[in-house]
Amino acid sequence: MTYWNAQIECMDRETLSQVQLEGLQATLNRVYKNVRHYRKLFRGIDFMPEDLTSLDMLQQLPLLTRRDLSRNYPYDMFAVPLREVVRLHTTAFNFEQPVVIGFTANDMANWAELTARNLAGIGVTREDVVQIALTFGIMSGPFGIQLGAEVIGASVIPISAGKLREQVKIMRDFKTSVLISTPTVALGLIIAMEELDMDPHGLTLKYGVFGAEPWGEKTRQEIESRLFISASDTYGLTEVFGPGVAWECPAKKGLHIAEDHFIAEVIDPATGEVLPPGEEGELVITTIGKEAFPLIRFRTGDLTRMDRTPCSCGRTHCRISRIFKRCDDVLVVRGTSVTPDQIGRILARVSGEEPRFQMVVDREENRDQLMVAIEATDTYFFDEMKKQRRFVEHLHREISEFMGWEVNIRLVEPGTFDPYQKVVDNRRFE
Ligand SMILES: [Zn+2]
Fold first, then answer.
1. pLDDT confidence of residue 382
2. Ligand 1 centre from 32 Cα, in Å?
3. Model pTM score
């Protein structure tokens, strides 16, 4: 069993709780002093940071939502002056309700430590060649992995996503041993290999770390058996660094949360009440080491179960179950987040008013497909075929551009779907 930082990853629970309490107290003090949003919240409930003397008391503080973050666009949630920020990322490339996340130099070093623990935990060493097939851009994902792999001393190929045929040639010629991507890209690489008549046995791949979209055991089996690798899940979100929040150890029985940096709670999304281990609810994260962009009780929108039982790997940090669902209306399709509101606004812009529509996600041949069904009405002159076709083409272009890949658009008769059900997700992960 390999650990990157055994002292911390296997720390006894008592010491870990003390580390968390001290980190939490320091973070609360800093946000109270430097972030107006938190100061206002705390004053509203008559709470002073020095009042917190035990970890349980965290439950008394208000929850934080994505909306709170985007309301403070761009820099009002920062707890340090901009001159101390060395990196900026945003949560989405389409820039709808954006959230800007800053990193200090210390934040970058901590991020590298966390992703290094993730990679070292599955067996990555300085002998490895790590191909990062995630899109390098304004979102943080691939950068965190790159930092961790470089800290380990592995050789990094920051190839980004796309150009799958080129990727498999590089994979073969550069002797890639670790693949980092979304599961969708991994499956795309398998197809590209088949098209090139390339035998995966000829590759030097050993491990794969996959994330940024929901994927289940069936997909894991498919990737493992066809690429001859061990595939593991990783979880993170840009608001909280990106990758490096929680990851699977070789036991593959849930994802360990890095508890020396984060305090995780699982709440009932309807009442906000903290749930006992084993019950499914919304993951809430408090950061206790971040300098530039600390978060206090941030609602992730992701549904999971907390597991505080000991793990066979020896790590003492708690585990969360793999994440397949969300409790809000955000859909994660091929690594892209989208809400019905966003699609509704595009439809309204193109057609002049928001029609009734439904978003349907399916997994066909291991690839997510998004279809937007729109109820046809007389308003759109649908008696004229040519106008109708142009309308559909226009929508197809706009929505596909928004998502970054091809989306199907279908006009349907009124009454075809329940107009109150904006999202139908037919994917099965478990
Ligand atoms: Zn473990």
1. 60
2. 35
3. 0.88
